[in-house]
Design brief:
This protein has about 400 residues and is of the alpha/beta class. It is built from nine helices and 13 strands. The strands form five sheets. The protein has a four-stranded parallel sheet. A three-stranded mixed sheet has the order 1-6-7, with no helix packed on it.
Length: about 400
């Protein structure tokens, strides 16, 4: 199945360095310009002026809500610094999502009228068919990229490695779900007596990660009973043992830094510290700059893996895969950002992560297991259902 990158950015985050002061005469000074007031936005000034609503910026300064920005209020010498609350990006990563599901025939670079069980794959983005995505993919705030091409081979582990590093397979080191790397002196998984250099993330010519026991030492994506118990993507027990926790995040296998490490600092080399202002902002406020939910590649972020979804335990493998990841992310959202006893209070002061990645693998698995005739039904009744639950929060 052709894999197409699908990213939904709910809001935009800007890393700018605006600085402002409001003196006692209540005018607003930004650099050498004095204005009568200010607005906080993440849209360019020209976009604000050209907006149908129209914003007169002749006496208004525009501040950009990037991480680390502050406003200093000065009234008769009494000063107070206030941070500008940053906005976060949520990436919804849907494995195996065809372009012509959400793009109509005039928007898609390819469209197969027989692609989904003898019929077309397109699903109208409206409140009836896709009540979850409908709340996100509004026409006035959606950008659809027509001419986008997957890497080769366009297979799960290689594709996501490229997406979350921005590198091609020859630089990521991940060339498939199963491959041979001549420079590796290890075998993955280590429990099978296979030739050195063979990496089998999934069983193919060699045995891969088929063990479903959550406590297994080399289970592919490790089990997490409580979201507060951080899962280290690099090491199994402790950093001294140097024992891989998840092979796909091992520095010898995934050779390129992840996008997440560009923010928080590399785990595999010294000297690259990431975005220090971003890290300082979240550390001081008890937040996590990057959160990765149920994704294979998590180096550089707070990794939420999976728990047993007891409510969907008999719903089939695909639904269990999606439900287990959403269950853990949902627990995190409730526990991290709500106050009060049993997290029943309102929103607390912990800042939302700069980047949150949520991976939904069930659609791709369902198509592989049962064929394309069930594809649209699963997307509508399962994938979009979980997205609606997240948006409704």
């Amino acid at each position: 199945m052709r894999r197409v990158l699908f990213i939904i950015a709910l809001v935009i985050i800007l890393f700018s360095s605006s600085w402002a002061s409001i003196p006692a005469n209540k005018s607003f000074k930004n650099g050498d310009l004095t204005k009568g007031g200010f607005i906080i936005s993440n849209r360019l000034a020209v976009e604000l002026k050209d907006n149908p609503a129209g914003v007169d910026l002749s006496n208004i300064a525009v501040l950009y809500g990037g991480i680390g920005n502050i406003i200093e209020i000065d009234i008769d010498g009494a000063k107070k610094e206030l941070p500008i609350e940053p906005l976060g990006i949520i990436v919804i990563a849907i494995d195996g999502l065809r372009q012509d599901v959400l793009y109509d025939s005039t928007e898609a670079s390819y469209s197969d009228p027989q692609g989904c069980g003898g019929g077309g794959c397109n699903i109208p983005i409206d409140a009836t068919h896709l009540p979850g995505l409908y709340q996100i993919l509004k026409e006035d705030r959606t950008i659809k990229l027509r001419d986008i091409t997957a890497i080769f081979p366009s297979i799960t582990l290689a594709s996501w490695a490229s997406i979350f590093t921005g590198k091609l397979p020859n630089e990521t080191g991940i060339t498939g779900n199963e491959f041979f790397a001549r420079d590796l002196t290890m075998r993955v998984p280590s429990r099978y007596n296979k030739p050195s250099g063979i990496v089998s993330f999934a069983s193919g010519a060699f045995k891969g990660y088929d063990d479903i026991l959550p406590t297994s030492d080399d289970f592919f994506i490790p089990y997490q009973s409580d979201w507060k118990q951080e899962v280290d993507s690099l090491y199994l027990i402790d950093r001294e043992s140097r024992k891989p926790r998840s092979p796909q995040n091992d520095c010898r296998i995934l050779m390129a830094d992840t996008l997440f490490e560009k923010i928080t600092g590399t785990r595999c080399r010294t000297g690259e510290t990431g975005m220090s202002e971003v890290m300082r902002y979240f550390n001081e406020r008890g937040g996590d700059p990057v959160v990765i939910a149920n994704q294979h590649y998590a180096r550089g972020g707070y990794w939420l893996t999976w728990d047993i979804p007891w409510g969907d335990i008999f719903g089939g493998t695909s639904k269990i895969m999606d439900s287990s990841g959403w269950d853990k992310l949902n627990d995190y959202l409730s526990g991290k950002y709500k106050g009060g006893l049993f997290n029943l209070g309102g929103r607390n002061k912990v800042p939302f992560s700069a980047l949150t990645v949520w991976y939904l693998p069930g659609l791709d698995h369902e198509a592989h297991e049962k064929g394309m005739s069930v594809y649209k039904d699963y997307f509508i009744n399962n994938t979009d259902m979980y997205i609606k639950e997240m948006v409704d929060r």
